[in-house]
Design a protein that fits this description.
66 residues; two-stranded antiparallel sheet; 2 strands; 6% strand; transferase; Ntn_hydrolases_N; acyltransferase; leukotriene C4 gamma-glutamyl transferase activity
Length: 66
């Protein structure tokens, strides 16, 4: 399933294959979201921002619209 989703593949795959035990998993967008929560509290991540600059990618828009 993951290979069909480019965003997931970019995170969980390396050089065309799934990450293996011992590979480093980097989730920059998750790190940015957690930093935002730590600095501003959990309500900040739930606010809608028209600029799209406060939330990594467009996950916030999809989350709040559904």
């Amino acid at each position: 399933m993951l290979p069909n989703h480019e965003n997931s593949k970019a995170i969980f795959w390396k050089e065309g294959a799934p990450l293996k035990k011992g590979d480093k998993l980097v989730q920059a967008n998750l790190a940015k979201s957690l930093e935002m929560i730590a600095e501003n509290g959990p309500a900040r991540i739930l606010q809608r921002h028209d600029s799209g600059t406060d939330c990594p990618g467009d996950a916030e828009k999809r989350w709040l619209d559904h």
